[in-house]
Amino acid sequence: MSTVFTRGERFVFEQGRPLDRARLRFHFASGPARAVLDELAAYQNDDGGFGHALEPDLRTPVSSAVATWCAATVLHEVGAGAGEPLVRRMVGYLLDTYDAAGHRWWIVPPQTEDAPRAPWWAYADIGATFGGCLLNPTAGLAGALWEYQELVPRAMLAALTEAVLGRLEAGAESTLDRGDLTAAELFVQAGKLPDGARLRAVTALRRAAARLVENRPQAWTEYLLQPLDVAHTPDSPLSSAVDQSSIAANLDYLVGLQLPDGSWPLTWNWSEVDADAWRLAEREAKGIVAVDRLLTLRAYGRR
Questions:
Q1: Tens digits of residue pLDDT in 14-67
Q2: CA-CA distance, 183 to 224, in Å (whole number)?
Q3: Residue 1's pLDDT is what?
Q4: E-only strand ranges, 75-185
Q5: Residues 6+ apart with CB under 8 A from 131
Q6: All structural domains of the chain with their residue ranges
Q7: How many helices (H) and strands (E) does the chain have?
Q8: 8: number of Cβ within 10 Å
Q9: CA dihedral 173, 130, 41, 143 (to 10 degrees)
Q10: Cβ neighbour number for residue 235 with a 10 Å cutoff
Q11: CB–CB of 112/138 below 8 Å?
Q12: Is the dihedral of CA 190, 83, 292, 50 positive or negative?
């Protein structure tokens, strides 16, 4: 296992983005949260939102809800507080771009079409592709606002929260998909989310996870929810919804899947759209995945 970590860390330091190098140092070498925040600031625009390929498959510099959700997960990861300037500007962007009538954020802006991107980030199709954006990315961004609820109008947050909870409960048995589940993780992890709301959300998400997680190792090369995509750590809110033998098998699978350069292969590819842009996006995404894989392996004692 020491070889797995040595290779993974080497890949991140040699080929990963400065942001992911700072994340790696934060988690594995007592690096400062400030260094992570300083690198994250390079992706923030004047409007407070985030762009500049923070989500590697979306290359536009323009702010988007999905890139801002990615930023919110990093802010959560390092425990950034409401006094942090990046946070205050981000919350301002979310309040400015919130669709109050639909209780949602549209996942990408029209300018998405003006830069290289994966085919699923087509602005014209966002309503159909992302279920009206009612949960993806809205649930994740609602979680971000709960992290900094002192900066958010109380009535707005209450209405948004009830909308998210209703959608999670209504779709748990049938309509929730991988993107919805992933977006909702930040919602249930928000430290200031009321306990009653957290319980409702976790209950719904566990039902959905039991339906969506793929337990067959032969299918894990595809873009689907693997056990560890839900049970990132033993104490993850959704871990109890995943069969423990599947988690053990998935850990073995990840260890064996690592490539000689220390990265892990991705389960998606859009090189046929723009080979040069994909080459850069793939390397960046692999750096993100490497940090996340190493964190999961350590959490399960595989270091």
A1: 999 999 999 999 999 999 999 999 999 999 999 999 999 999 999 999 999 999
A2: 15
A3: 66
A4: none
A5: 175, 177, 180
A6: 1-17+214-303, 44-212
A7: 13, 0
A8: 24
A9: -30
A10: 9
A11: no
A12: positive
Using the structure block, give the residue that is written with the tokens 């602005």: 123
Angle of the 65-78 helix axis to the 18-28 helix axis, nearest 10? 30
Residue 99: phi and psi, rounded to 5, are: -90, 95
* 222: amino acid identity, one letter: E
Q: Distance between CA 26 and CA 79 in Å, rounded?
A: 11
Report in angstroms the alpha-carbon separations of 122 from 41, 149, 193, 280. Answer: 26, 32, 32, 19
Element (H, E) at 139: helix 138-147
Token pair of 69 as six digits: 């959700």
pLDDT at residue number 127: 87
Does residue 163 sit in helix, strand or coil? helix
Is the pTM value of this prediction over 0.85?
Answer: yes
Q: Is 159 left (phi over 0), alpha (psi -120 to 50) or beta?
A: alpha
CA distance 104 to 134: 6
Q: Is 182 in contact with 131 (CB distance < 8 Å)?
A: no
Please give the single-letter amino acid code of residue 118.
Answer: A
